[in-house]
Amino acid sequence: MQNVIDNLTYWIMKVPEEFTLMSELEVSQKPLPEKWSKKEILGHLCDSAINNLERFIKVQYEKQPFVLTPYNQVQWVEIQGYQDISIQEIVNLWCHLNKKMIAVIARIPDEKLQYLCDIGDNQYKTVEWLVQDYLEHMEHHLRKQIFTEKNK
């Protein structure tokens, strides 16, 4: 888990730096009407942190295997109105959520990393996999959709 913590720490430093280099137009522009802007993508990553933080806590004490409750990502982004919020507010929220994520991940006992989660469709994954998947999902959006030119 130290690798995940190290990577999250890196991104907590990097994301605010990178967004200060972007104009409001760049962070607000949608590539297509039905696609998310960079603000909305980062907002989606806030929503991912909110949902996964709850999962990483509950999986440690709920009945096993822990059943993950899905959430409607599009509705979360729309209802939270990330497109209309300042990028600084979204960056601050994202940083605070991921600092909390690090604190929770660091406290997961080794034996609980092997607890199983029912992710749907008769698929079961360990907590360790779920934590790693959280990081991979976040890095995918950051590298492929937000900071595309800088991280090829």
Provide a concise account of the structure shown.
Helix content is 61%, strand content 7%.
Overview of this protein structure:
- The chain has 152 residues and is mainly α.
- It has a single domain, classed as dinb family like domain (Four Helix Bundle (Hemerythrin (Met), subunit A)).
- Helices cover 61% and strands 7% of the residues.
- The chain has 6 helices and 3 strands, in the order αααβααββα.
- The chain has helices at 2-20, 24-28, 38-58, 73-80, 87-106, 127-146, and strands at 66-67, 116-120, 123-126.
- It has a 3-stranded mixed sheet with strand order 1-2-3.
- α1 runs antiparallel to α5 (87-106), α3 (38-58) packs across α4 (73-80) and α3 (38-58) packs antiparallel against α6.
- It is globular.
- It starts with a helix and ends in a 6-residue tail after the last helix.
- The mean pLDDT is 95.
Strand content: 5-15%
CATH superfamily: dinb family like domain
Shape: globular
Structure annotation, total helices: 6
CATH topology call: Four Helix Bundle (Hemerythrin (Met), subunit A)
C-alpha-based Rg, rounded: 16 Å
Number of strands: 3
**If classified by CATH, what would the architecture be?**
Up-down Bundle
Query: What is the count of distinct domains?
Result: 1
- Determine the N-to-C terminus distance: 26 Å
In the sheet with the most strands, the strands line up as 1-2-3
The ordered H/E elements are HHHEHHEEH
Fraction of residues in H or I helices: 55-70%
The helix-and-strand class reads mainly alpha
Catalogue the unreliable spans: none
CATH class: Mainly Alpha
Q: Mean of the pLDDT scores?
A: 95
Main pleated sheet: 3 strands, mixed
